[in-house]
Each structure stands twice: as C-alpha cells, then as structure tokens.
Amino acid sequence: MSLIASLYGRLGGDPVARTTKSGKDMTTVQVAVDVTPRDAAAPETLWVGLLAFGVAAQTLQRAQKGQMVAALGRMTRGIYTPVDGEPRESWAMLCDSLVVTTSARPTGGGRAKGQSEPARDPAPPGESEPAPFYDDDIPF
C-alpha cells in the first residue's frame, strides 16, 4: 500500500545533487511543511525529505534555500531511535512531479492600506468586448 500525497513547503537548505551508479540525476533536500492546526497556539512544522530523479531532480537543483516548492509523490515513514533513546519518526517523499514557486511578497502580506489596484492597460482602439453568443439553432 502506498501513501500518495502532495505537499507545499519551504526548502530548509540548498538541494544536494548526486548521480546514481547507473548515471541518473538525483537530488535531495529537506522541506519544512506547516501543519499547524487552526486552534493551535504555536506553529507546528513537519520536516519532509524530498528525493527526486530525472527531470524533477534537475528542476530541484535550480532551487535555493528558502524557496517554496509544491511536490507530488509517494510518502514513506521511518522510525529511528536517537542517542536519547526516545523513538522518533521521519517522513520522506519520492517525487513524481515538482514545481518550484516564487513569491512577489516573501512575507506573504497583502497590499498596504491605501495602496490601490495596479493600473491596467486600456483596450486597444477599435477593440471592444466580444458580443454575447446566442445560438438560436439549438433544437431544445
């Protein structure tokens, strides 16, 4: 059984590019995903390791720490025991597809108060809105 998921998060470091023994491009990176419940007092982050091959690996190699990524792929969960003896879990995704996104406002904020909608170019002279389409030949 597989867990297919999509995630949207921020790169926690620069992607690390490698080549497999068979010559395929491979890229790995950690992604911070916000999983904070609506009623939580403090933010909660889930770290997911991304593993990408081929075109997705090449796309990921051009990304930088802090950029947002959207990924779709198969999730796996690992359980490990660190030196402190408390079992922990880790999540990883084998990417099927990946998009590196950019933001005009890295803070995520909207327009400042008093700032208006940007001006739009007027329609070229002689062009107007198309006339509505009315097809009276429809037989019902």
The CATH topology of the domain at 3-96 is what?
OB fold (Dihydrolipoamide Acetyltransferase, E2P)
Low-confidence spans: none
Query: CATH architecture of the domain at 3-96, please?
Result: Beta Barrel
Which structural category do the helix and sheet elements fall into?
A: mainly beta
Element order: H for helix, E for strand: EEEEHEE
**SS elements, strand count:** 6
Classified by CATH, the class of the domain at 3-96 is Mainly Beta
The portion of residues forming beta strands comes to: 35-45%
CATH superfamily of the domain at 3-96: Nucleic acid-binding proteins
N-to-C span: 49 Å
Keywords, please?
140 residues, 42% strand, globular, OB fold (Dihydrolipoamide Acetyltransferase, E2P), 1 helix, mainly beta
Give a description of the structure.
With 140 residues, this protein is mainly beta. It has a domain of 94 residues: OB fold (Dihydrolipoamide Acetyltransferase, E2P) (Beta Barrel), CATH 2.40.50.140. It has a 5-stranded mixed β-barrel with strand order 1-3-4-6-5. β2 and β3 form a beta hairpin. The chain is globular.
